[in-house]
Design a protein that fits this description.
Layout lengths: L5 H10 L2 E5 L2 H8 L5 E4 L7 H10 L3 E5 L10 H11 L3 E4 L2 H9 L3 E7 L3 H14 L3 E5 L4 H8 L6 E4 L5 H10 L3 E4 L8
Parallel strand pairs: 1-2, 1-8, 2-3, 3-4, 4-5, 5-6, 6-7, 7-8
Helix pairs in contact: 4-5, 7-8
Protein name: Glycerol uptake operon antiterminator
InterPro entries: Aldolase_TIM, GlpP
Pfam families: G3P_antiterm (PF04309)
């Protein structure tokens, strides 16, 4: 696959709205056999994350690394720079606003992960997203359709629904609510 620009990501998400989220080696093997284009890597360590990313990229996958979940990697500015220099994914996922800013500054596509557990986390999440301006936001859990609908009007970035998305009904509900794409570890949904 040719190098993809940031501007092309949104179009690719529209064309390929299911993102595989992989948590282990078995998921890696399975995603390599799938037609899914975009992969969120939710596991690994500083010794193997570069190899995981290379394997995926060699199969034409567009890779995003959840830097908060990489063992041995401190989730700070240096960790972001390490991922950029030695792993070379398309972008990162993180819950940390400071890492979103730094990732964007050094040329990584930055997806901010937001956990919605109550109205305060929703208000704080919207404020942080509008302040930090990630390239996209992943809303967790992804089955909060009414909340996603309300966020679409308040944010100027694409919304990805993730977490607890386990059926075609969940996928369609999130997309209908206004999410541009969904991420899931549910392998059965990777082929939708």
């Amino acid at each position: 696959m040719k190098k993809v620009s940031f501007n092309e990501i949104e179009e690719l998400l529209i064309e390929n709205p299911v993102i595989a989220a992989i948590r282990n080696k078995q998921d890696l093997e399975n995603v390599l056999k799938s037609n899914v284009l975009i992969v969120f890597v939710l596991y690994g360590n500083i010794m193997n994350i570069s190899d995981i990313c290379k394997i995926l990229k060699d199969k034409g996958k567009i890779v995003f690394i959840h830097i908060d979940l990489i063992e041995g990697l401190k989730g700070d500015h240096i960790g972001v720079e390490f991922i950029k220099k030695y792993v070379e994914p398309m972008g990162i996922l993180t819950t940390k606003p400071s890492n979103i800013k730094h990732a964007k500054a050094i040329g990584l596509y930055a997806v901010q992960r937001v956990f919605l557990v109550d109205s305060l986390s929703l208000a704080t999440g919207i404020k942080n997203i509008n302040d930090v301006k990630p390239n996209a936001v992943e809303v967790m859990p992804g089955i909060v359709g009414d909340i996603i609908t309300g966020m679409v009007d308040r944010l100027k970035v694409p919304i990805i629904a993730g977490g607890l998305v386990s059926s075609k009904k969940d996928v369609m509900g999130a997309l209908k609510a206004g999410a541009l794409a969904i991420s899931t570890t549910c392998e059965e949904l990777w082929s939708i």
